[in-house]
Amino acid sequence: MTKDKEPTDHGSALEVKANDAKIVRKIVLITLSSFTLIFTIGIISGYFYIKSALEPVDPGSKEKVEIEIPLGSSTTEIAGILEKNGVIKNSGIFRFYIKFKNYSDFQAGEYTLTPSLTLKEIVTELQSGKIMEEPLYRITIPEGKTIEQIAGIFAKKLSFSEEDFIEVANDETFIKELMEKYPSLLSEEILDKELYMPLEGYLFAGTYDIFEEEPSPRQLIETMVERTDEILKSRHEQVAASGLTIHEILTLASVIERESKFSEDRPKVAQVYFNRIDNNMKLQSDITAFYGLKNLKHKAVVTYDDIEVDTPYNTYVVDGLPIGPIDSPGEEAIDGVLDPEGEDFTKLYYFSRPNGETFYSDTIEEHNRIKEEYRHEWYDLENEESDSDK
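and the corresponding structure tokens:
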């Protein structure tokens, strides 16, 4: 009689080993996935951190910061001085930037910089020492000026004519070059053949220091476009939330610039226009009618003949916004569009006196009563201007 073999533990041992291997693989997989996730998050975070550090500290700032770069300063010391004075965000990123770009030859001396400068602009200033010099020209372009008026301001002080400036501002080849360089600002909308001036509204109103003896219109126009680009980029979240294109924002801001005199009225006037659009009402802005007539001088009183002329700018005729900006708006007007008074402000009409005081109404009857009370002030103003022109 044969004896049965005793059972062994070989089968169960193999199962245990297989299970252990599965657990190990699972642990390795989870560990690798975790490291991959952490690494990916780190890369993304690092990218946005570096991207932010490469941008101006405050693109809209006009603050002037006095900085001294001592003789023999290293790039590390220069970066530290700039960061300490709030001109750059991160000294380490600045050092990496100048090393990557192979920038050198920084000059010692006293500089006046602003937090709105890009890293490239800061490097240029430190290399050239230009900022240590007094500008040859300091020219201020007031808010609410058209391109033709801007051309006249520059032509009075510089070596080119109004016609030279306007010709460059309308040059299609140049405009397309600017569109490639500033794609987030300049869209195909500015190529519409019905626009009087493609770049109207895109030349930022402000003070410009000019260090060249004979700057060209091309240089000045690009500088002004670049400033507008910086202003809008510094408000990119508000721009995205507005639901408007850049062209629409600048168009409405250009109307608000001329229709409201005081800071507190700009968000309210913007809201009136949004309310009118929501109620399928025409904007009926006098100055859009005047611009459509190519009347650069702001007439004090609109006539029925003015508002009946069919132009793509006349908001008594067209629905919604005019085809494009009618002047160069300032930051307050742009902010009025991006941050209007709010839906609780339900007014549909406004009337401004020559002194800037503005009244808001819910009904046309109330609006007309206010107009009757104060309209004579505009007639008086127009008569005074007519007398002064004689």
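(Above: one complete record from the training split.) The first strand starts at residue 65 and ends at 69.
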